[in-house]
From TrEMBL:
Residues 469-483 have a biased composition (Polar residues). Gene3D superfamilies: MFS general substrate transporter like domains (1.20.1250.20). Pfam families: MFS_1 (PF07690). This is Major facilitator superfamily (MFS) profile domain-containing protein. Keywords: Membrane, Transmembrane, Transmembrane helix. It comes from Champsocephalus esox. It is found in: Membrane. Residues 469-490 are annotated as: Disordered. The keyword Transmembrane helix applies. InterPro entries: FLVCR1-2_SLC49-like, MFS, MFS_dom, MFS_trans_sf. Residues 42-458 form the Major facilitator superfamily (MFS) profile domain. One of its GO terms (cellular component) is membrane. It is a multi-pass membrane protein. The keyword Membrane applies.
Amino acid sequence: MEGGDENQENRAEVQTVCAGVIPGLPNTELKKLLSFKVYKRRWFVLVVLCLLNCSNATLWLSFAPVADQSARYLQVGLEQVNWLSIIYMIVAIPLSFATSWMLDVLGLRITLILGAWLNMFGALVRFLGTGISTDPAARFPLVMFGQTLAAIAQPLVIFTPAKMAALWFPDNQRATANTIASMANPLGMLLASILSPWMTQTTGDIPDLLLAYAVPACIICFLATVGLRSSSPPTPPSASAESSGSEPFVQGIKLLLNNRAYLVLMLCFGSGIAAFTCFSTLLEQILCVQGYSNEFAGLCGALFIVFGIVGAGALGLIVDKTKKFIEATKINLSLSAVACIAFSVVSLMPQQKVAVAVVCSLFGFFGFSIYPVVMELAVECTYPVGEATSSGLIFVSGQVQSFLYIVLLQALSKRLADSPLSTCGDAVLSWKVPMLVLGGLTCAFSCVFVLFFNTRYRRLEAEEQATYRTNTINSSTPESTPSEGKDPTD
């Protein structure tokens, strides 16, 4: 079902050959000698995951950059339009545990293909609800239903980078692969921030916008269904990949909840995810009060994501070489808190385009860059718990806090009777208090993380021990040929 028969046959064949070269070698040690191979197919798996992650993010943020036009076309208020984004958080919370179980038990292939089909159906239902339905009253319910299907797909996609990197990539490429796959999500947010304002000049352009997002979702579903043939390569790329997800799911959850370092990471980084979600969802509504256009808000969102991707790429390469996960996370999380506070101040000032753009860029550069590093750090401090379980609980924490933050910020906002600078249309809200509260929360959780988080790198320690034992066997059997670093064609 997941290519397991193919993998077992390949492993048996290689074991037979090696047994002839190294007679009497124990099975467990033989596996270690066979374990350090990588396959070119891993790049296709990475590309499919990136495309799927990107597509799902565009569906999530389709309406936020054009909240005013969406509200008028769907004949609802801005609060209902915000629920098209909030539904992602609500759906993800109960489904996250099921997704973690699926990844660690059923495997990568089934999880990704199911996510691709849900993502495609969600995109199609959204388009059909606006492009075909002639009843205006039916538009919002149909769009919300499609958005819910896409929201169900999100945990199936966004939990996967750490698992994919552990199963398919060697230890010196794991953080980079995780970074590439994880940053595909903000890349989708970037595309939505640019395409939505550009394609929606009038309210009647909404159906065309949703069609533009539905077509790629269909293509990606085809690639995932046809191209993903197995959950893992025939032989593992690292010592830890062989035991990936070795702890039973329920036992893994218990271990996580008793791991003090992990709980601090889950709470503090979950707050960071919530801050980024609030920023992406409410950016246009915050800036329009001070007279900034939708196009400028889209530009700020684009700068936020572009600099985040640049920062993530640079930090991923650095961490792959240095393995300094803790230092990188503490420094960048602290700087992102400072950038969030700065945004809370400058976003309340009119005619400060340069300052707003610079602060958004810095917020993205320091904030987004730590996401893939934290996913790797979560695995390091919880090994041998499955990667999907450790990264999944952090995502759940982020979604719960995101929902609470958005509800809190909306409750703290106040309707303004008059705002001469506003480009928001009829609904004009004051975001002064909510923004200051957001900056304070981000700062508080960053301080908690810096002061109280510390851990061992359990996965790296296990790999060093396995490598040492393998090298000992190799030195005693000169006839054997080391296989680490090979890249055989499938």
